[in-house]
Amino acid sequence: MIKKLLAGLWFTLLLVAISALFWQNEFKYSLPTPIPKNYHDIAMGSRVDLKCCVSGGKPIFIHFFNPDCPCSRFNVPHVTELIKKYGDRINFKIVVLNKEKTFTIAEIQNKFDAKIPVYFDDGIAKSCGVFSTPQAVLIDASQKLYYRGNYNKTRYCTNADSNYAQMAIDSLLKQNQSPSFDALALRAYGCSLPKCTK
User: Fold this and answer.
1) Domains plus CATH for the chain?
2) Which of 2, 33, 60, 129 sits at 20 to 30 Å (Cα–Cα) from 192?
3) Residues with Cβ < 8 Å from 102, sequence gap 6 or more?
4) What's the burial of 45, exposed, middle or buried (CB within 10 Å: 0-12/13-18/19+)?
5) Structure confidence at residue 18 (pLDDT)
6) What parts of the chain have a pLDDT lower than 70?
7) Residue 22: per-residue pLDDT
8) Where are the beta strands (DSSP E) in 68-133?
9) Can you tell me whether residue 198 is helix, strand or coil?
């Protein structure tokens, strides 16, 4: 009888531990990021004045990134691929949002295998209406917000049918109107600002 009770207790503890690990490493990141109480939305099509990010007449793509956020880390290869594919037609920038640790520009550039501008200014996120990482922001050549949202509906950016950020880039380069996306593209998923935790 005691052996069965101990086995049952052990099984219950194991199940609780597995559930906690699943929550910590997977499920909580599939939930939308809560919108902060003091959040000020920036509407699509609004002019975004970013003194830091000179466009040189090209559209600007800003990747909001936190090296400590699992969702940010998972999409590094996808963002690197976008930089390589569109870097001659789009000005890519990375904004690092992490108040807990310091990172160098070189460390961030090495992660993405790209010598592109890196900023540590959370004011850029506020100007673009970003409150989580990772997020993609695409600003057209006239400094209007063309897209703000997710990269993909899958955590590892493996679903070609939902490469939202890439679809937005393609649409802008073809000079189309901003494409209409579903809630999975436009709702923030990932790590909350200011500390980029879930």
Assistant:
1) 60-192 (3.40.30.10)
2) 60
3) none
4) exposed
5) 55
6) 6-7, 11-12, 14-30, 53-55, 155-158, 194-198
7) 44
8) 91-96, 118-119, 132-133
9) coil
Structure tokens given for 111: 């992660």
Per residue in 168-187, pLDDT (tens digit) is 999 999 987 777 888 788 88
* Alpha carbon distance 135, 138 (integer Å): 10
How many Å is the maximal CA-CA distance in the chain? Answer: 77
Instruction: Determine which helix (DSSP H) or strand (DSSP E) holds 137, and give its type and residue range.
Output: strand 135-139
Structure tokens at 100: 């807990």
Residue 46 identity: S
Residue 161: per-residue pLDDT? 81
Question: Per the structure block, which two tokens stand in for 169?
Answer: 């880039």
Q: What is the pTM of this model?
A: 0.82
With contact defined as beta carbons under 8 Å apart, do 136 and 147 qualify? yes
Query: In degrees, to the nearest 5, what angle opens at C-alpha 162 toward C-alphas 159 and 166?
Result: 105
Q: Report the length, in residues, of the chain.
A: 198
Contact 144, 180 (CB under 8 A): no
Q: What residue type is 119 in one-letter code?
A: Y
